[in-house]
Amino acid sequence: MLLKTFGWSFAVTALGLVAAVFYGGWTGFGIVAILSILEISLSFDNAVVNAGILKKMNAFWQKIFLTIGVLIAVFGMRLVFPVVIVAISAKIGPIEAVRLALDDKDKYQQLVTDAHPSIAAFGGMFLLMIFLDFIFEDREIKWLAWLERPLAKLGKVDMLSVCIALVVLLVSAMTFATNAHQHGGIHADKTETVLIAGIAGLITYLIVAGLSGYFENKLEEEEEREQEAEEEAKRSGKKVPAVVMAGKAAFFMFLYLEVLDASFSFDGVIGAFAITNDIVLMALGLGIGAMYVRSLTVYLVRQGTLDDYVYLEHGAHYAIGALAVILLVTIQYEIHEVITGLVGVVLIAWSFFSSVQRNRRAAAEGKDTGSSEKVEVSSGA
To answer: For residue 143, what is the DSSP state?
Structure first.
């Protein structure tokens, strides 16, 4: 089971490290290894949240997530994305951006640093919306009940999460962006840039999550009709029609996963520049880390870990909220990647141990956690 799930990750790790040795010697080997660990530590919460969504897909779409999805994650976000943001922010062509990445690494790193406010605003708003929609939803299972109960009541107010997100964006733009540190000591007003990028992140979330939710609801309706048709078929002996909405629903959930992964990867890509400004080593290291994150996602689904440890999803979403705040703060202030990674690890570890204690109490009292609770938890992502 372990080899089947992580086999591709092991293979990519071996190939990536060998390529690093040929490209940059043992120094390159060390840099790629460090970047791989950095990506895994920063994206563990991503795997937990992804698992809550991926468990709704069948085996075919799980394979798509591990194949085509990996190509998008590794080559799109870890290789192409840094080049694209440089090209857009510096108003140069993609070919020129690639030339800078290979031949003038210091200037390339500076251009990426200059583009950070817009990246942080976009990613921060997208992740903030995920967190707000989670905590404002009334759930049967509550981890921090003292906090989640009143928030669930507030969540009954329509569009509350959008309003709060816009207020946070406005405050961030008026405080952090006004004095965003740029160009080695010169302060530049990035208010307009942050506002536009943040609104773009909010719109992206609303579109992708809205389409995903719409088709997921359609899928549930079709599944109910299929069950009714099966019961009718048993009585009449007729064939049961196939569910035609499954493909569309799975496609938009897959799209949602890719955008979610892209938002999670922002901190990893930016943080990688603290270790190296070599785009090849960066792509190798972050690509290896991305493979393990995806394999871990599938492992959590197949092992039913989210059903057994019911607070894991809560911890991951709180980590998302923390990461969203950190991204917005980094518009002006630098926060070390170790702190970013530790916040997510601590919150998820806390939720894991809380789940273990809950299971022990339930076992001691002779209670069954029940499938209804599992369904409730799985609907939270």
So the answer is: S
Residue 19 corresponds to which tokens in the numbers above?
Answer: 């390529």
Cβ neighbours, 10 Å, residue 142: 15
The Cα 53–Cα 381 span in angstroms is 6
Residue with tokens 């979610």: 260
DSSP per-residue string spanning 189-253: --HHHHHHHHHHHHHHHHHHHHHHHHHHHHHHHHHHHHHHHHHHHHHH-PPPPPPSSHHHHHHHH
pLDDT tens readout for residues 36-87: 876 776 666 667 777 777 777 777 777 787 678 777 776 777 777 777 767 7
Buried b / exposed e along 34-47 (16+ C-beta atoms within 10 A)? ebbebbbbbbbbbb
- Rounded to two decimals, what is the model's pTM? 0.68
Cα→Cα distances 73→65, 290, 326, Å:
10, 7, 22
**Which of these, 309, 313, 312, 335, lies nearest to 324 by C-alpha position?**
335
Q: Where does the chain show beta strands of DSSP type E?
A: 180-182, 186-188
